[in-house]
Please model this.
Amino acid sequence: MRKTCTVVFCLLALAAPVALAFQQQGEPRGAFLGAGESAGMSSVWFWAGVYVVAGLVFGALAAHRALQTGNRALAWFGVGFFFTLPGYLYLLTRPKKEMAAPAGVPHGLQKIAATSAPEPCPACGAMNHPAAAQCIACGGNLAPRFVSEAQRAGGAR
Ligand SMILES: [Zn+2]
Model:
């Protein structure tokens, strides 16, 4: 959550001077979005652009939050895109859904814990992740060297 706040703050800090510069300039120079120097950019198109950029930012934030709270990411991206900040704030009021992790690698998740410092099982000698509580080969109990990321995130094992 703190990381998300930092990202938002950085985006706002970056966007504010750019927006101000464009406003003061009145007529942005050609390179931006291929606008010709003579054509200039009407304020309608400028604010439409701001709306789209804000929509993408809040859509991404909403999708990120939805993934973490067990909600449907694509649907909430849409909410964040069209309603921007109010949509994102509405998502923050939604309750967190229970995310059950079945045994094995959950559906849609392809990352499998790997390590460059495996620990041998005292019973069978098979190499295991140092955070493993059970041997991957014989199922015997192991003494985990540290808490795994999955455990810290509230997952099983
Ligand atoms: Zn073993």
Notes: The chain has two domains: 2-93, 100-152.
